Amino acid sequence: MLIDLRSDTLTKPIDSMRQAMFDAVVGDDGRTSRDGKGEDPTVNRLEDLAAKVTGKEDAMFCNSGTIGNIIALMTHCTRGDLVAVGANSHLYKSEKSPFMESYFGLDPVLYEADNRGVPRVDSLASHFRKRNTNLLCLENSNNFFGGACISAKETKAICELANEYSVPVHLDGARIFNVAAYYDLPVSDLVAPVDSVMFSVSKGLGAPIGSLLCGSKAFIKQARSTRKLLGGGMRQVGIIAAAGIIGIEIQSQRLKEDHEHAYLLASKIVGNTKIKVNLENVQTNIVIIDVSNSGYSAAKFEMELAERGLYVKAVSNNHIRMTTYHGISTENVEKAAVIFNQYCHNLKEVDSDIE
Ligand SMILES: Cc1ncc(COP(=O)(O)O)c(C=O)c1O
Question: List-wise, which residues carry N6-(pyridoxal phosphate)lysine (predicted)?
Answer without folding.
Answer: 203
